[in-house]
Design a protein that fits this description.
Largest sheet: 4 strands, antiparallel
Order of helices and strands: EEEHEHEHEH
Radius of gyration: 17 Å
CATH topology: Alpha-Beta Plaits
Length: 126
């Protein structure tokens, strides 16, 4: 089945070394997203880049050491506008520094199961 809708895409950019206590910030955010019932999140690690500090980050070529090098973590979430606003409120209390972007997206989901309009309405209001 194909589901098409208008959603918001929230993209979070944080330094891979950023922590909350002893836990990497991206892991803390994933745990918070799960607790909030957010549908899904994709976490990507950059291979190079720079931010407001103008410090260029080039992680080592070795995959084994990639996650230990200083670079940018990019987290993507696609949700309804109301859910994105809930996430922003949580980020206001959680993020010490970083950047988020929010944009409108056309959302298309392919699924093997049959989803009714009522299922979609209930999910949006959850």
């Amino acid at each position: 089945m194909k589901i098409r809708d208008k959603k918001k895409e929230l993209t979070i950019y944080i330094n891979s070394k950023e922590t909350q206590g002893t836990t990497p910030l991206y892991k803390t955010l994933i745990d918070k997203f799960i607790a909030m019932g957010i549908t899904g999140c994709t976490v990507l690690k950059s291979t190079a880049g720079y931010g407001t500090d103008l410090k260029v980050k080039y992680p080592d070529e070795s995959i084994a050491s990639l996650w230990s090098k200083d670079s940018t973590i990019v987290m993507n979430v696609i949700e309804s506008e109301a859910r994105v606003e809930e996430i922003v409120k949580m980020l206001d209390l959680t993020m010490p520094q970083g950047v988020i972007t929010i944009k409108d997206v056309d959302f298309i989901r392919y699924t093997r199961s049959v989803v009714t309009e009522e299922d979609i309405r209930l999910a949006d209001n959850a």
